[in-house]
């Protein structure tokens, strides 16, 4: 996810000034004229007492994006060349950008008793906690820095955390190019599944290009 600024699980955040301007991997003059190069830039999730002053953005369609809530669109704060916001304040006691994700568990006290019975209570508490954010992996690394009967206790959360870090917006250069590179060689793992994914990307992102599976040499 290619955000410029992310405010997550935060309390009392005061930003007195910020200018956001991003091109990623390529540039086109049309983006300056239309102002729609990037969908999002400033993201707020599950945070309270958040104040933003003098926020200036360029070619970003949403000035402030809130999870589960109506965003502040840049067109509403357009001043002729840039998108200027003098002040955006949230002073309520409740969180803004509230998550609705209930979370999940990787380890179960009962089902994984054969492994968890041999670990200390602090390790067990870290492993069996409800996962709502990426800090579960960091917690497991700190409290469980060892293996139990050749079982790496932090492996399940580590796999999820690694996958999360590989996430990229569907239509961005990095994601589409990865599939296109696989498609042009018969030696890659590009198969019907990847072909279907690439077809979906090209359709949704208004791109064009070959999608066929090359025969093996």
UniProtKB/TrEMBL annotation:
This is Uncharacterized protein. It comes from Aspergillus novofumigatus (strain IBT 16806).
């Amino acid at each position: 996810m290619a955000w410029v600024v992310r405010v997550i699980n935060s309390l009392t955040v005061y930003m007195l000034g910020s200018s956001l301007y991003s091109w990623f991997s390529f540039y086109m003059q049309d983006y300056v004229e239309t102002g729609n190069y990037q969908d999002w830039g400033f993201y707020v999730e599950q945070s309270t007492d958040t104040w933003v002053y003098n926020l200036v953005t360029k070619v970003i369609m949403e000035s402030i994006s809130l999870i589960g809530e109506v965003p502040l669109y840049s067109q509403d704060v357009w001043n002729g060349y840039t998108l200027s916001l003098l002040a955006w304040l949230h002073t309520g006691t409740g969180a803004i950008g509230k998550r609705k994700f209930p979370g999940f568990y990787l380890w179960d006290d009962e089902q994984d008793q054969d492994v968890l019975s041999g670990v200390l209570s602090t390790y067990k508490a870290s492993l069996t906690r409800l996962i709502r954010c990426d800090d579960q992996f960091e917690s497991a690394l700190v409290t469980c820095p060892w293996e139990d009967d050749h079982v790496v206790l932090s492996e399940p959360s580590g796999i999820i955390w690694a996958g999360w870090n590989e996430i990229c917006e569907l239509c961005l250069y990095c994601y589409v190019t990865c599939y296109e590179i696989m498609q042009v060689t018969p030696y890659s793992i590009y198969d019907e599944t990847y072909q279907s994914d690439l077809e979906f990307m090209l359709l949704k992102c208004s791109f064009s290009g070959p999608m066929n599976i090359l025969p093996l040499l």
